[in-house]
Amino acid sequence: MDMTGARKRLDGLWRRGCEFLGTEVAIMGGAMSWISERHLVSAISNAGGFGVIACGSMEPDRLAAEIAATQERTAKPFGVNLITMHPQLDRLIDVCGELQVGHIVLAGGLPPTNAIRRAKDTGAKVICFAPAPVAAKKLVRSGADALVIEGTEAGGHIGPVATGVLAQEILPEMAPRLPVFVAGGIGRGEAIVGYLEMGAVGVQLGTRFVCASECIAHPNFKKAFIRAAARDAVPTVQVDPAFPVIPVRALANEGSRRFVEFQHEVIRRFRAGEMEHKEAQLEIEHFWAGALRRAVIDGDVETGSVMAGQSVGMVNREQPCAEILSELVEQALCSLAGRLPAVPAAVS
Ligand SMILES: Cc1cc2nc3c(=O)[nH]c(=O)nc-3n(C[C@H](O)[C@H](O)[C@H](O)COP(=O)(O)O)c2cc1C
After folding, report:
1. In total, how many domains does the chain have?
2. Which of 152-178 are b and which e, b meaning 16 or more Cβ less than 10 Å from the residue's Cβ?
3. What is the Å distance from ligand 1's center to 334 Cα?
4. Is 184 in the pocket of ligand 1 (CB under 6 A)?
5. Is residue 66 a contact partner of residue 89, using CB atoms and an 8 Å limit?
6. What is the Cα–Cα distance from 238 to 188, expressed in whole angstroms?
7. C-alpha–C-alpha distance, residues 41 and 73, integer Å
8. Are 148 and 104 within one domain?
9. Residue 237 counted as domain residue
10. What is the pTM of this model?
């Protein structure tokens, strides 16, 4: 296939994704707490992709201000990612409705049907994360307009199953029913083509956008990404099954080493009868409170949480969003055309 043929094929492969998102390319910039704010989100959307604001723990007023500021920076579509356990979820959904956000992504556990309904009632398209085939079916019944399947290679909160396995389990049955986007471990265009050919309509990348020039992450955070190899991005270690830990993939650092010691110490105090189980569990859960902000905003990459996916090994330098997206598209086209893409000078 020549490059014109490859372009036609790619357009065809992700047409449904582009139509669903209202974009030129069906590449979503996955919401990243503290990182996916007005600057990065508008830059991704202005470059033809789909930026998504990470609401995280923001209060409704703060979210409204972030949406309005993003709308000032781009006339292109973008989405808002809401965490379903946020205590003011309903109000946050209403804020999205008031500001006419076109796409709401419900993340952080299976969203309740009434939250999906409320989000749809604002007129927005609703995108949900499906961690397993059964959940995917339930989400379709609950009215989700599109799904994201995210494998364990991803940065941030993760499930146990690899992207390639989830894609094989979920795409054959779900892709004919609704748009499905694949996330986790995607760093190059060849991988995008692979998932599109399996039936996905698009992809979501997070890690690859952290070192975008438009991203406000602290220079230390970006440097840590540029230096890291895939194997440095590891899930949190849990030392005792009686004290579950939420799995998060992040770069191993002093903080992750201290977390292991901290768990041992808390569990020792529990065993010595110095504290109740519930209190010990809470102490363990609170260890990382504020740690992502500390790393992203303050630049404390030693004790903060440097959430990153395994694709961090493919992040080699700071680049504008437009360049990141055009590189991915070029790699996708070359892969379809059976050619090797040009290797950028700074990487070779
Ligand atoms: C630093 C960081 C923070 C993240 N925060 C969130 C979040 O707040 N909400 C969410 O749904 N996903 C979050 N994610 C996941 C991304 O949206 C995206 O799905 C993921 O990064 C895709 O996998 P990749 O990292 O392999 O590209 C985060 C990821 C990273 C790296």
Report:
1. 2
2. bbbbbbbbebebbebbebbbeebbeeb
3. 27
4. yes
5. no
6. 31
7. 9
8. yes
9. yes
10. 0.96
d(CA 245, CA 267): 13
CA of 109 to the centre of ligand 1 (A): 14
User: Ligand 1 pocket: which of 37, 41, 103, 207 to mutate (most atoms <8 Å of CB)?
Assistant: 207
CA distance 325 to 188: 10
CA of 32 to the centre of ligand 1 (A): 5
Same domain, 258 and 301: yes
191 lines ligand 1 (CB under 6 A): no
d(CA 161, CA 168): 11
Identify the domain containing residue 297 by its residue range. Answer: 229-307
Residue 308, ligand 1, Cβ within 6 A: yes
By DSSP bridging, strand 156-157 and strand 248-251 are antiparallel
The answer to whether position 346 is within a domain reads: no
- Give pLDDT tens digits for 65-117: 999 999 999 999 999 999 999 999 999 999 999 999 999 999 998 999 999 99
